[in-house]
Amino acid sequence: MKRRGAKRKQRDELQSSSQQEQPPTENHEPPAKTAASSRAKRAKAAKPEPEPEYIEDQRNLEDLWKKTFPVGTEWDQLDAVYQFKWDFTNLENAFEEDGKLHGKTVYLFGCTEPQLVSFKGESKIIYIPVVVAVVSPFPPSDKIGIKSVQRESEEIVPMKQMKMDWVPYIPLENRESQVDRLKSQIFILSCTQRRAALKHLKIERIKKYEYCLPYFYHPFKEDELEQKTEVQIIFPAEPAPVFCEFDWELDELEEFTDKLIEEDQLAKDQKDAFKDFVKEKVREAKRANREAREARKKAREELNEETKSAFENMKFYKFYPVQTPDSPDVSNTKSPFINRYYGKAHEVL
């Protein structure tokens, strides 16, 4: 009895000692680890959130001016046209309520005007983009004129021969819609000739694009050719041809010829031949003017009243980029002149 009691006492003492060494069952994480976790949570909560990135929404007609093909611009200068962030919000605003083009059917074509302007303290030749807006219920023309100082003759060809055509412009908010379901009121002169394919074209064909001018024929207005009284003379003389300009209203042929002889531009023995050559050129020019006037008269007579009214009310607006810190100031270079076919714009903006 005494011996068993001693063993029980020894066992009870061992159990008591073991219970004191065990950690509390309610918390299995050591205190040090819990403190570190709390500090990490506080640090994470204190980290500032990044500010939301601001992306400016594109305006509905923001790319309108870029979509219009700059007719007559050299292919190797196209990148120079877009080197600046040009702003045509004046063109965009014209289509807003109370704007000059609001609610109207408009045909747009682009061009460029090389001008010496100053930008950030440096003066240089810059190709300024210009957009011409034609207010008309029908396309102003389906032809392109090809003419330059270097070319002796002028060509009037269908637009499609130069891969150009009037196409509807789709505002940004309608780009997801089907084009045939949209009633477009804005048409742009577009060109499908790819720059990458130019290397496969002949030089003469490439140069034609540089000499293109949007063509326009107004049946109620005589163009400058019909009013001209000058003829360009290239007389095949020896040892060199004679180049001059003769005005049949201002110049007297005998006196004009004698002066060329005095200046050693024409030999005496070629005087009569030269005079006959000039007379023939004058007759050709007068005949061409007369035929043009007759054709214009016939065209007027064949027009219906609705088409006549459309031509009489047709308006041309010429848009230049507005001044911004990101582009040169072109306010001093503005001109109402469009080209030799369209003449002058009714308003420059």
Automatic annotation (TrEMBL):
Query: Is Cell membrane among the key words of this record?
Result: no
Which Gene3D superfamilies does this entry report, sorted A to Z? 6.10.250.2770
Gene Ontology BP annotations:
regulation of cellular response to heat
Q: Where is the composition biased (Basic and acidic residues)?
A: 46-56
Tell me the superkingdom of the source.
Eukaryota
Swiss-Prot/TrEMBL keywords:
Coiled coil
In this chain, the stretch annotated as Disordered covers 1-56
Annotated coiled-coil segments of the chain = 275-309
Protein name per Swiss-Prot or TrEMBL? Protein HEAT INTOLERANT 4-like
- The source organism is Trapa natans
